[in-house]
Design goal:
The chain has 363 residues and is α+β, with helices and mostly antiparallel strands. It folds into 2 domains: 1-109 and 175-353, FAD/NAD(P)-binding domain (3-Layer(bba) Sandwich); 117-169, no CATH class. It is built from 10 helices and 18 strands. Helix 2 (43-53) runs parallel beside helix 6 and helix 2 crosses helix 10. The longest helix has 21 residues, at 87-107. It is elongated and about 65 Å long.
Length: 363
């Protein structure tokens, strides 16, 4: 969309506002029709809405008041890395780094801190060897270190025999909360509308999809569902259930609407990390300074779902990011927007198709 188009969209947005909540979220006085609705304002949904706002009038809905810490996109930091055992993720990461840098430039905000990433593994482990090959095949700057090399270079690290390391020199951390806020701010700058604090209670598929929330009714030519742990609860409204498991990092299952009760119990993750740090990094204090919890939404193969609804082609699903999706959000959002707009996807999406699973109908 050209600059004048963005200004016009912003004027339309302002003319429909009757109040502005804390954080600058626009509240429309009447419900109406937009080109695209995105449900779920985590990093995947927000980046999808950001890409779509350059081409069409887009509405982003979240059931909680923003910002919140109930999903999978909150917190101080996330890892960003090129090292993967599956080469198609490493192939996507090249553009992800470019788009994160672009977001920094567009918002004049530091979002990425380079640190490097040390990946440890047994020298004969097939997955570890595949990670090494993936970095080499994609010309990613890296160094291979033996256990002796690691001890010499990082004296605080003590590795057992037979364990070596890969140093992904491109890796670092993303400032998660800051990144999410800036994507949403840029989305609004491009004329996008955010309705937070509205839970979706009904979805009616048709040429114009009707979405009913606790506060209004909206219609759009296209709908994107990026609701993280709540994805299946929404897909049940349109006759679909995917093999998604909501869990903590340690693998224990969770209901996203019961997380406040579950998180009162001590996390197994804290004990696992404390034991690992005491054993492998004896010079560090193993006790956490800050503990933040978020949920994963896992698929059986830990690959994403990026696809059309099998029966309603104007409903797009982005789900199952399995604890490693944040860094890939710029490209995920781009791909989901391409599926929405009927454009040829920038990447081969065969690993992310819904048809790889045995689907359950809920109708």
């Amino acid at each position: 969309m050209c600059h004048s188009g963005r200004v016009a969209a912003s004027q339309r947005q302002r003319s429909g506002c009757v109040e502005r909540a804390a954080g600058g979220v626009c509240k429309m006085s009447v419900q109406g029709e937009v080109d695209t609705i995105v449900i779920g304002a985590g990093i995947q949904g927000s980046y999808t809405a950001y890409h779509l706002s350059k081409h069409s009038k887009t509405l982003l809905i979240d059931q909680f008041a923003l910002p919140h810490a109930r999903g999978s996109s909150h917190g101080q930091t996330r890892i960003i890395r090129n090292v993967y055992a599956k080469t198609y993720y490493t192939a996507m990461m090249t553009e992800c780094y470019q788009l994160w840098k672009q977001l920094e430039a567009e918002t004049n905000t530091e979002l990425f801190r380079p640190t490097g990433l040390l990946v440890l593994g047994k020298e004969g482990n097939p997955s570890f060897q595949t990670m090494k090959s993936t970095l080499i095949d994609n010309n990613v700057p890296m160094t291979t270190l033996t256990s002796a090399d690691v001890s010499k270079r990082f004296p605080a690290v003590q590795l057992p025999r037979g364990v070596s390391a890969l140093l992904d020199k491109t890796a670092g951390i993303l400032y998660a909360d800051r990144a999410l806020k800036n994507v949403q701010d840029l989305f609004r700058r491009f004329g996008g509308i955010i309705r937070d604090g509205e839970k979706v209670v009904q979805i009616q598929p048709s040429d114009l999809v009707t979405v009913t929330t606790t506060a209004g009714i909206y219609r759009a030519k296209r709908l994107v569902i990026t609701a993280g742990p709540w994805t299946n609860k929404l897909l049940n409204l349109v006759g679909l259930q995917l093999p998604l498991e909501v869990c903590y990092h340690s693998g224990s299952r969770a209901d996203p609407d019961e997380r406040d009760v579950s998180f009162q119990r001590p996390s197994q993750d804290v004990e696992l990390l404390r034991d690992f740090l005491s054993r492998e990094f004896p010079g560090l204090d193993p006790n956490p300074a800050v503990v933040e919890s978020c949920m994963y939404t896992n698929t059986p193969d830990y690959d994403f779902i990026l696809d059309h609804h099998p029966d309603h082609k104007n409903i797009i699903v982005g789900a199952g990011f399995s604890g490693h999706g944040f860094k890939l959000a710029p490209v995920v959002g781009k791909v989901l927007s391409e599926l929405c707009l009927g454009e040829k996807p920038s990447y081969d999406l065969s690993p992310f198709k819904i048809c790889r699973f045995h689907l359950k109908s809920v109708l």
